[in-house]
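Field log, afternoon session.

UNIT: design team B
ACTIVITY: writing a sequence onto a fixed backbone
BACKBONE:
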């Protein structure tokens, strides 16, 4: 830059030219020194070039030949290369397919399981597919579709399993009746077996029927209780061997849907949702089951179906309790049972109050006992049911009293109120067997002869015993002590005597057109029934094994009942006599202004005295067999009292005739006629 910037450019160029000339001279010197070698080298290079040209021609020719020969090999190599590439691709594809095939197989298996409604295995397959197989091939598009469908499949399984659960709930609702019936049959068979074991500790070979097992109790009441022949046997399993297997709940209902649904919801972490839904639906079903039909009280089948449904419901719940872990628990079952017990008791109190048939009430009691025993066998407390039975027992007694009121009315209405004639020993023993009567004088008399009482005495006595047996039948299987049974029977019998029988006797005594002979016979009959009360006491003692001397033992009031009836009959005799006297006195037609008296007593008075004479002849002309009872009547002053009552009433009535307001004046002749009538009365009374 200093050269170009300065003024020494020309000088620099001169120096540079001189430098070039020096170098050219040195190069020339050197070339001259090596020229011969150079020439030799050029000569050799020319030779080499010729040889190289030959070699080139040979190589070119060889290459041409090689190229011609290698075209097929190149084609084969290209083909081999393509095959190797395809082989590598196939191998990679096989490897990928080996990873995808299990996924597809599992998915196909999942679909098949869902199609065949094997939802729990399908859920397990889905779990394996999601966590084991799909992660290995997650980058494929079809796998992403599967992953997106997994929640939908879970929801589908959930919905289908819930649908199966709903079908299951509907199934057990329909089958509750049958399940309860089978459970109650099982309980009945077990109770029959227990009775057989208790009655026959050493059972010989062979099968026993229910009737054979209960033979001793039937013999005890045979031909005595009206209920014995009408006993419905509602709980008997007729024509069935005791050893016959009765199907249980698991045999009548397929519980697998609820198990599957429970497992599915557990796997899906929705167990609590399932439990709440199941319990809610079963509570609703319980309320429906516990709602009794409005006409349940009309037939026993109505009660039986009601109880069968309740038993079936709780048998299913008990089965679920013991075959699942936590789906239902004891607290939930107890809560349902408390609700069921309160509603059942309320329904029984309501509907049983409509029942007026003692046979139906007794059958209902047997059904309630079996219902209680069945549920007690499953661990449910049933003490309140037995308390209700004690309430129904009072109603049963009332229905018995109504029934026996009709029985007594029929007996009293159909009686002829005449002593029972007997023509032979067989008839005599039959009546003595029905009614405890002993009379040495009557036994000595030849046939034909008569009992002092009419037919209603042995009939009423037999019906009282039948009433006692009917009361006893209700007390069976109530787990009552002998003292409680005895007290119950005695109280009911007292009501029968003091209310039912007493009212029937009073109605007979008070009815119109009852004759003096009938009243006298009623007095005789009630006297014998009064004496039979001690035998009724013994009868009750024999069937309850509770001695009358036991503390708190209720006494029978039969003696008072029959005494009251007898007194009412006596009063009715006196009243009837007085009414007849009044009727005759109405015929009295005194002429209070007559100047002269008649020659004899008044006609009405003669007729009245004739009536009284024939009436009192009833007391003095009884049959020979009744003489003993005539003495009873006389000792009781019935005849004397009747006579005195009639005379007193007659004298009072005659006095009233004189003192009537209409009689303002009378003559001596009228008084003499009246005095003649009074003297006639005195004379006849003395006779």
């Amino acid at each position: 830059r200093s050269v170009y910037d300065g003024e020494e450019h020309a000088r620099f160029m001169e120096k540079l030219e001189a430098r070039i000339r020096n170098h050219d001279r040195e190069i020339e010197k050197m070339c001259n020194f090596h020229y011969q070698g150079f020439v030799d080298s050029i000569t050799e290079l020319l030779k080499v070039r010729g040889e190289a040209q030959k070699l080139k021609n040979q190589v070119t020719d060889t290459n041409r030949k090689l190229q011609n020969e290698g075209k097929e090999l190149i084609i084969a190599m290209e083909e081999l290369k393509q095959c190797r590439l395809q082989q590598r691709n196939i191998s990679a594809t096989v490897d990928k397919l080996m990873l995808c095939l299990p996924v597809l197989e599992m998915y196909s298996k999942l679909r098949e399981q869902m199609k065949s409604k094997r939802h729990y295995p399908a859920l397990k397959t889905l779990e394996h597919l999601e966590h084991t197989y799909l992660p290995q091939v997650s980058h494929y598009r079809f796998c992403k579709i599967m992953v997106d469908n997994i929640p939908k499949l879970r929801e589908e399984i959930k919905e289908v399993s819930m649908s199966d659960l709903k079908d299951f709930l509907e199934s057990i609702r329909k089958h509750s009746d049958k399940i309860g019936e089978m459970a109650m049959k099982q309980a009945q068979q077990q109770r029959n077996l227990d009775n057989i074991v208790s009655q026959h500790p050493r059972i010989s070979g062979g099968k026993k029927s229910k009737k054979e097992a209960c033979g001793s109790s039937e013999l005890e009441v045979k031909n005595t209780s009206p209920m014995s022949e009408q006993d419905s046997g509602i709980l008997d399993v007729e024509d069935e061997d005791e050893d016959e297997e009765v199907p249980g709940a698991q045999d009548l209902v397929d519980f697998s849907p609820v198990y599957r649904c429970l497992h599915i919801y557990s796997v899906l972490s929705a167990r609590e949702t399932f439990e709440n839904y199941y319990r809610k639906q079963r509570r609703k079903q319980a309320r429906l089951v516990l709602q009794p039909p409005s006409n349940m009280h009309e037939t026993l089948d109505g009660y039986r179906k009601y109880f069968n449904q309740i038993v079936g419901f709780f048998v299913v719940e008990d089965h679920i309790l013991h075959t699942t872990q936590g789906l239902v628990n004891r607290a939930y079952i107890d809560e349902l049972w408390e609700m069921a017990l309160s509603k059942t008791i309320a329904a029984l109190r309501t509907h049983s109050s409509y029942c007026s048939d003692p046979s139906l009430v007794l059958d209902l009691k047997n059904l309630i006992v079996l219902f209680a025993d069945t549920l007690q066998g499953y661990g449910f407390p049933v003490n309140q049911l037995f308390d209700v039975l004690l309430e129904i027992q009072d109603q049963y007694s009332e229905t018995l009293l109504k029934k026996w009121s009709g029985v007594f009315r029929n007996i009293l209405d159909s009686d002829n109120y005449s002593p029972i004639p007997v023509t032979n020993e067989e008839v005599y023993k039959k009546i003595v067997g029905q009614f405890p009567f002993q009379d040495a004088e009557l036994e000595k008399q030849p046939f034909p002869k008569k009992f002092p009482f009419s037919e209603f005495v042995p009939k009423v006595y037999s019906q009282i015993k039948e009433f006692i047996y009917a009361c006893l039948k209700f007390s069976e299987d109530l787990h009552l002590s002998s003292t409680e049974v005895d007290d119950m029977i005695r109280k009911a019998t007292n009501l029968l005597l003091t209310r039912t029988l007493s009212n029937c006797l009073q109605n007979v005594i008070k009815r119109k057109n009852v004759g003096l002979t009938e009243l006298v016979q009623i007095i005789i009959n009630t006297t014998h029934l009064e004496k039979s009360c001690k035998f009724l006491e013994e009868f009750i003692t024999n069937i309850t094994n509770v001695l009358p001397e036991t503390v708190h033992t209720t006494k029978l009031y039969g003696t008072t009942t029959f005494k009251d009836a007898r007194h009412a009959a006596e009063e009715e005799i006196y009243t009837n006599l007085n009414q007849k006297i009044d009727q005759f006195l109405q015929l009295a037609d005194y002429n209070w202004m007559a100047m002269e008296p008649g020659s004899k007593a008044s006609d009405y008075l003669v007729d009245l005295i004739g009536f009284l004479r024939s009436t009192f002849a009833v007391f003095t002309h009884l049959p020979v067999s009744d003489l003993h009872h005539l003495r009873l009547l006389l000792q009781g002053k019935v005849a004397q009292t009747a006579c005195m009552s009639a005379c007193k009433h007659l004298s009072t009535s005659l006095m009233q005739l004189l003192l009537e307001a209409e009689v303002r004046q009378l003559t001596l002749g009228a008084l003499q006629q009246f005095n003649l009538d009074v003297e006639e009365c005195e004379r006849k009374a003395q006779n």
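LOG NOTE: Strands lie at 421-422, 449-450.
NEXT ACTIVITY: expression trials, pending approval
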